[in-house]
Amino acid sequence: MASHQDANARNGRIDRRTALKAAGAMAAMPAMGWTVVVPTRAATAPPTPITPGRAAPSPADWQSLARSLTGDLLEVRSPLDVCRKDPHSARAEAVLENMRNPFFLEEQPGATHTTGWFNAFESAVSPRAIAAENARDIAAAVEFARQHDLKLVVKGTGHDYLGRSSAPNSILVWTHKMRDITVHDDFVPTGGDGAGVPAVTVAAGSRWLETYDAVTNHSGRFVQGGGCTSVGACGGFILGSGFGALSKRFGTGAGNMLEAEVVTADGKVLVVNEFQHSDLFWALRGGGGGTFGIVTRLTLRTHELPKILGGFMGHIKAKNDTAYRELIERFLRFYPDHINNPNWGETVKFTPENTLELSLIFIDLPEEQARKTWQPFLDWIDEHPDDYERDVEIVSVPFKDYWNIDFWLENYPALIQEDPRKDQPAGQFWWKTNDSAVSEYMYGYASRWIPLENFKDPAALARTFFDASRHWNFKLYVNKAMAGAAPEAVERDRRTCINPTVFDAAAWILMQASDTDVFPGVPGHEPDRTKAEILASRVASGIEVIRQATPGAGNYANEADYHEPDWQEAFWGTHYPRLLAIKKRYDPTGMFQTHHSVGSES
Ligand SMILES: Cc1cc2nc3c(=O)[nH]c(=O)nc-3n(C[C@H](O)[C@H](O)[C@H](O)COP(=O)(O)OP(=O)(O)OC[C@H]3O[C@@H](n4cnc5c(N)ncnc54)[C@H](O)[C@@H]3O)c2cc1C
Fold first, then answer.
1. Of the candidates 303, 317, 341, 557, which lies 20 to 30 Å from 381 by C-alpha distance?
2. How high is the pLDDT of residue 25?
3. Is the model's pLDDT at 2 over the cut of 50?
């Protein structure tokens, strides 16, 4: 159906409308701080062709692109510009305050959640963005970039740790406005037959926030997404095999994908699933965001809602190194039979201060049963008061309230943060535990799967963990590995392109050192190089200890080191050659290129 805007364009009224929008955008600038609609008199240079010497698009070309869109063509600047130019102004302070809000970041085509990574990159702005409203806008952007030889990048929410959702001298497809969500009782993929399954279709800009609201709060079902409400439900998370807290029960995001609509490098809009373009469908399920095309919508399987959501939280502190080694070994002996199963998820942190910090969740276990599971372990701690002290608690809530903001405000208000800005949609919140990931600057960040095999020699693995913890703290995630997962989840994930070593891994380790108040180029917020060097080196030496003990263990791309060695093997293992062939088939000229993505080595 032709939109109101298309009609305006045909009637030659685009300039007046555009001018009005530009004026509106500028009037809003103190609050929004970022965009001007083009074509107006541009303040920043548009992107230029990748090939040196090729003619850049003319103003008329840009004008013509703007006219062809339902959405807007934007001139983009960093919201931090004001902090660089006038760091002590009230506006600069207001922007820095907003940079602590994940939803504000997502509303900025010129911002990303990671502000930079020591010795790797600094977040950079794509000078032009298409605020896409539908698949046709995205196809127009791809066509324009191809015709004019421009670098093209895609941003949904901008959560990518490796800075892949923006790039200097590029044109950005920004999907933020595409938020349609449809819940299905009986979804049958296009071209398929037989019985349908319950599912949800999310448009490219949807976040988990509104997806959980539609699926759980309004339809009483469960969809496997990420824990952070502001991460995208139709972008890098799913395309990069994202894991959620309950992935040991329900599998990865990619494993739950039933269908996708995708704009490929030739500007075509394809619907892909197991029945049509099944090779591309397989590649999209874990082959990485921004690599095989731009997904405009995708459909995910939904599941019966669990009944109980429990938490096992607290800490156990060892009073000396010997006791800590013993504690780690006890835990590693206990883990495979008691925790490595579909009922458990989330983390245990191993710190240099000889403490285990427990932040685990469980589903569909009555509190009493969860307590019984841990009792022998806790009894052993209590039998050694000279060596350990502990403070742990078990709580549970109805699972149906997991994403119900009113429930949390009423019962556990300290756990969540509502969007503090005026006039925001009701229910826009994030978990306080995610504060540390909003505008985060990385000193070091490295991760790895831990094979189940390693748990068969708990003494050796305990030595590894103890030695690694001397360098820096790290978290063991129960839910980001598939050995011990529910058989039906494993079966679904085996049909994706995730590195098959995940099925032999019982846990995933993340070692990370970062800060949130670091904004490269902003006076008073520059990275401290000395600190950065120390922390980067601690993470590098710590993960090396773990790497040495887990040869060939592998990893997944979404939450990996920028400097991941042998990344093709680490992220996709034996699947890499097939992924590369599919990449060449659908994107022969390498239009979609991001750091450490399939085909980026060439
Ligand atoms: C606070 C925080 C919490 C996180 N929690 C988890 C977690 O629990 N589990 C987990 O596995 N990961 C987690 N991640 C990592 C997350 O999975 C990745 O950063 C993921 O790539 C984010 O996808 P996005 O679309 O939201 O972000 P974006 O930065 O917008 O996109 C990420 C990548 O996907 C591409 N992309 C975006 N949209 C599209 C599209 N429509 N079509 C094609 N390519 C697209 C981008 O170009 C970019 O390369 C977390 C990250 C952060 C910052």
1. 341
2. 36
3. no
CATH fold of 181-305: 3.30.465
Q: What average pLDDT does the chain have? A: 93
Q: How many angstroms separate the alpha carbon of residue 189 from the centre of ligand 1?
A: 25
| Contact by Cβ (8 Å): 589, 265 | yes
Class of residue 478 by CB neighbours under 10 A (exposed 0-12, middle 13-18, buried 19+): buried
Q: Which two tokens stand for residue 223?
A: 């969809």
Neighbours of 384 (CB within 10 A): 13
Which of 151, 159, 179, 556 is the pocket-test mutation for ligand 1 (most atoms within 8 Å of CB)?
159
Q: Tell me, which fold does domain 307-402 have in CATH?
A: Alpha-Beta Plaits (3.30.70)
Q: Rounded distance, CA 67 to CA 185, Å?
A: 39
- CB 458, CB 333: distance < 8 Å: yes
How many alpha carbons fall within 13 Å on the CB side of residue 540?
14
pLDDT digits (tens, 9 = 90+) for 418-477: 999 999 998 999 999 999 999 999 999 999 999 999 999 999 999 999 999 999 999 999
Q: How far is CA 157 from the centre of its chain?
A: 9
CA of 265 to the centre of ligand 1 (A): 21
Domains of the chain by residue range: 4-49+60-174, 181-305, 307-402
The residue type at 585: R
- Is the CB of 141 inside a 6 Å radius of any atom of ligand 1? no
Q: Please state, for a pLDDT cut of 70, what percent of the chain lies above it.
A: 93
- Read off the amino acid at residue 571: F
